[in-house]
Design brief:
single chain; about 160 residues; alpha+beta; elongated
Length: about 160
């Protein structure tokens, strides 16, 4: 499970609306030097986004919790959103380059391949919308309260 700290912003049936707690990785974020995350945050603004998660521990509004997402679901999402469209783009570029010497046609075929790859992924994932079991694997789940001490195995 990929875990992240969040705050419960609202409750909807057996789901909780959560907002990710921003925790800095190092002390350089407030300074002018560092990894650059602070610079991007100042330029684009650190915006908060809310999402729904299964509330199995009956958390209340304002509680700080640890939310988890299955690693396989995250990797599957990366595969669908990045790998498949890029493979489609590459295949279209190679095929167009094989059949024509005009670089404009290769460029247009490359862009067409990328767009068609995204459209196929969208159609494929919308088709999964009817399968509750598949979607439940992608649903974030509240695992525990953030202030709960981790359990260690006895030696």
């Amino acid at each position: 499970m990929i875990e992240q700290y969040a705050i419960v912003m609202g409750l909807e049936q057996n789901l909780a609306r959560l907002e990710i707690e921003r925790r800095t990785a190092c002390s350089l974020c407030g300074q002018k030097r560092g990894c650059g995350n602070a610079v991007w945050g100042k330029l684009l603004g650190h915006q908060s986004h809310t999402f729904l998660a299964e509330n199995k521990i009956n958390a209340s509004v304002g509680d700080s919790v640890v939310v988890g997402v299955d690693e396989r679901a995250a990797l599957r999402s990366v595969y669908y959103l990045y790998v498949l469209p890029l493979l489609s783009m590459l295949v279209f570029a190679v095929v167009a380059d094989f059949y024509t010497d005009n670089q404009l046609h290769v460029l247009l075929a490359t862009m067409l391949g990328l767009v068609l790859g995204f459209l196929w992924v969208k159609g494929h994932l919308v088709g999964f919308g009817h399968h509750k079991k598949t979607l439940s694997n992608h649903q974030a789940v509240i695992l525990r309260f953030a202030d709960a001490a981790p359990q260690c195995a006895s030696s």
